[in-house]
Design brief:
This protein is mostly beta strands. It has two domains: about 70 residues, no CATH class; about 35 residues, no CATH class. The protein is built from one helix and seven strands, in the order E-E-E-H-E-E-E-E. The strands form three sheets. It has a three-stranded antiparallel beta sheet with strand order 1-2-3, with helices on one face. Strands 4-5 form a two-stranded antiparallel ribbon. The longest helix has 12 residues. The radius of gyration is 17 Å and the shape is elongated. It starts with 12 loop residues before the first strand and ends in a 41-residue tail after the last strand. About 25% of the residues are buried. The structure holds zinc ion (ZN) (3 copies). The site of one zinc ion has 8 residues, from loops.
């Protein structure tokens, strides 16, 4: 028997707002509370809207392989596939703390990340 890897449950905190004939969902990063709001989803029930909204929002969040939390790009260490609470972003050359917006290390000047990183999201 082949053991299927279960699809991770999308656990980001979210809020549902009814708007006209549909719903709009806002999902929040578990570290910063920053949100991503979906386009208006033409659904009859909040449950349906959540299902659709999740599929959309998954593309804007990253799942930490350590704590399994969902965080925004800003709080995700894509080199380690973990949130920065579990694995802080550091310079690979000198170990100085690094931030997403800095392309080069402030201490040693080494480039931090490839500019066009490959997203390894496995959508089905
Ligand atoms: Zn965040
Ligand atoms: Zn984590
Ligand atoms: Zn450095």
């Amino acid at each position: 028997m082949v053991a299927d890897r279960p699809v991770p449950i999308f656990t980001a905190k979210y809020r549902t707002v009814r708007e006209g004939a549909g719903f709009r969902l806002t999902f929040f990063c578990e570290l910063c509370g920053g949100g991503y709001t979906t386009p208006l989803l033409g659904c009859d029930t909040p449950k349906e809207a959540l299902h659709l909204g999740e599929q959309d929002a998954r593309l804007h969040f990253n799942r930490c392989e350590c704590c399994h939390g969902w965080v925004c790009d800003e709080h995700f260490n894509e080199n380690r596939m973990m949130c920065i609470a579990c694995m802080p972003r550091i310079c690979t050359q000198c170990g100085a703390p690094a931030s997403k917006s800095e392309q080069f290390c402030k201490v040693c000047g080494a480039p931090h990340f490839e500019t066009c990183e490959e997203r390894m999201d496995d959508y089905e």
